[in-house]
Amino acid sequence: MSDWGWPGLIAHRCGGALAPENTLAGLGIAARLGCVAVEFDAMLSADGVPLLIHDETLDRTAGVPGCVAAMPAAALLATDVGGVFHPAFRGETIPRLIDALARCRALGLAANLEIKPATGVEIETGRVVGELLASMAPTQRPVVLLSSFSADALRIAAGCVPDISRAFLVEAFDDTAIDTALALGCQSLNLSRQGLSAAHVAAVKKAGLRCLVYTVNQPDEARRLAAWGVDGVFSDRPDLLLPVSACQNPA
């Protein structure tokens, strides 16, 4: 557990591998497990509504063709993403970002909101997400950590809500990632577990940044990363990592 007020375990894509990803059902499962933080992805529909989805197409999560950025929100909100995961979740649809934030608030979950823009709409996605957060009173929204692989999206969103903590996401460590995170005023640099070393973590911490790592599903690996100084991990198997996590409610 880090000392910066953010939990050491974050359920990946709402409920990890235990629920259809990026759904309200996943949030409920994460809360019932005892998680206090989740991560999810926000992308815009064709008419500019921020929704929870990871891919630019519906093929993987819904089993139907469709380009998210070319579809209106009404069609996306009616898209079943539960049935492909398991028949028990049939009828679980893509939610709006604002509804996911409200559900997190109601469940007492902190939210790592990853801005996941479709190609070519990085700035617009950052603006819409930032303006949505800015329109919510602090008492209405959960504790939020904004993150993105897109420096442009993160910069624009942060301009709307400078009070919200943020993290820069990268697939592999290098010095330029640290420089970008610092230039964006980030509190954390979020790194993939692939190719990560203790020296990389030490460099991040030396720069004054926190370090979160994705996607960690084995308790032994979580313990090793904690020993390196990693502040927290994203996991598809929060049920396995909760026993070794020192999760507490975020400040």
UniProtKB/TrEMBL annotation:
Domain GP-PDE: 7-245
Superkingdom as given in the UniProt entry: Bacteria
InterPro entries tied to this protein: GP_PDE_dom (IPR030395), PLC-like_Pdiesterase_TIM-brl (IPR017946)
PANTHER family: GLYCEROPHOSPHODIESTER PHOSPHODIESTERASE, CYTOPLASMIC, GLYCEROPHOSPHORYL DIESTER PHOSPHODIESTERASE
Protein name as it appears in the record: Glycerophosphoryl diester phosphodiesterase
Record organism: Zoogloea oryzae
Organism phylogeny: Bacteria, Pseudomonadati, Pseudomonadota, Betaproteobacteria, Rhodocyclales
Gene: ugpQ
